[in-house]
Amino acid sequence: MTNMIRAEVITIGDEILFGQITDTNTQWIGTELTNIGIRPVRKTSVGDQADAILNVLQEAHQRADVIIITGGLGPTKDDITKKTLCTYFGVGMVRNEVALALVTGFFEKRGRAMTDINRAQADLPANAVYMQNDWGTAPGMWFEHEGRVYVSLPGVPFEMKHLMTNRILPKLGSHFQTPIIKHKIIRTVALGESFLAERIEAWEDALPNHIRLAYLPSFGGVRLRLTATGDDNAQLNRELAEQVEKVLPLIEKNVFGYDDDELETVVGRLLSEKNLTLGVAESCTGGYVSSQITKVPGSSAYFWGGVVSYSNVVKVNQLGVQAATLEQFGAVSEETVRQMAEGVRQALGTNVGIATSGIAGPDGGTPDKPVGTIWIACATANRTIARLLKLGQYRDQNIQLTTTYVLNLLREELLSDK
Fold it and tell me: Which of 43, 53, 114, 44 is closest to 78 using CA atoms?
């Protein structure tokens, strides 16, 4: 098999370390590198200090074939990437006339005066191959040094992505002979990571050496990522499909989709296929369920609306919950959530109604109903089913988990033959 090419991604900027911006660049770069057969082995964030950047570059040289650097290419004094690269490579700075013409044109087109600081954007380390940035003044740069490839890119995401897509990735693809890396992701829900691992342990142990499994937990679910490496694309696709077929009988009830599928998208697809409409009654989730459903383009075809019934008055007046039910069992109860699901279905005239009611926290719990006690329900023309969730102490997590579980309850009911 072709030797694996390893990559490290380095992001430069105090603003990343201080948490003032979110680093989305490394996630995108990692995906794109994998698509051309280059395996990311590490990502590193470093501040705007020359010594720290030099140390990171030296370390990356020891473990990676490709070093991708983003950030620190602006015109201000705190942007020190170019000067630091000159020190690292032991070269001086030279003005690139092609880059200067593009920077000049950038300012002329906008009717703005250019300063010496702006002209300095065209100054590059002497050993740099200039990679034109069509969407900004910060240059892209390609270096080859002691058997390694270094790429320096702007930190602005849309500039970086354009440079990577149109210049860097094609050049990397022709520079290296790389193996093929294929991913297949199995999306599971309502089964914890440890329980999932125990259930598929024998299958996992039998995976061939060139196929690796990773567990990627999220709220209410786990993504199982199979990564296959080899030289034959068709064969890798066949092998991944075979492994999915082998593991599916072990976890089929908990599998809702594959790759980029999201639970709300799968639910919407099922509703559309069955020509059904949906109404939502929410108490503890405060509209989050409806928000997730309407994230899906075209959801207006099946989602008719929702009622956020935080108040018992709304539960009674808008959803038809019986006052006697609330008095006897309380708002957080199986009896109430069933009537909420049935009531929103009736009130909106939909085929299906789902509902949530619980104590999201951090306050409001009692010995009988502590924080994290939540009921969910799904009502159809044939039946109403309800489930009790016993979650934790954290409000945001409880809201997100409840949303996942009620959407999964809806999914299961739509797939049911009953």
Answer: 53
Place of tokens 């489930």: 387
In angstroms, the CA 309 to CA 315 distance is 6
Average pLDDT, the chain: 95
Compute the distance between CA of residue 278 and CA of residue 346 in angstroms, rounded to an integer.
11
Per-residue pLDDT for 116 more than 90? no
Contact of 261 with 408, CB cutoff 8 Å: no
Q: Can you point out the beta strands (E) in 190-292?
A: 211-218, 221-230, 255-258, 278-282
pLDDT, mean of residues 87-91: 97
Amino acid symbol at 107 = F
Residues 6 or more apart whose Cβ sits within 8 Å of residue 209: none
CA 398 to the chain's CA centroid:
20
The full set of domains in the chain, from first to last, is 5-175 (3.40.980.10), 180-258 (3.30.70.2860), 263-415 (3.90.950.20)
Tokens of 181: 């890396």
Report the share of the chain in percent with pLDDT over 70.
Answer: 99
Radius of gyration, CA atoms only, the chain: 27
Give dist(CA 190, CA 405) in Å, integer: 7
**Banded model confidence at residue 303, pLDDT cuts 50, 70, 90:** very high
Answer for the pair 71, 38: CB distance below 8 angstroms, yes or no: no
Distance of CA 342 to the CA centre of its chain: 34
Which pLDDT does position 109 carry in this prediction?
80
Number of other residues whose CB lies within 10 A of the CB of residue 133: 24
List pLDDT tens digits, range 131-166: 999 888 889 999 999 999 999 999 999 999 999 999
Q: How far is 384 from 50, CA to CA, in rounded Å? A: 64
Which tokens hold the place of 376?
A: 């969910």
pLDDT-derived band at 417 (thresholds 50, 70, 90) equals low
In DSSP terms, 68 is beta-bridged to 9, 151
CA distance 289 to 214: 29
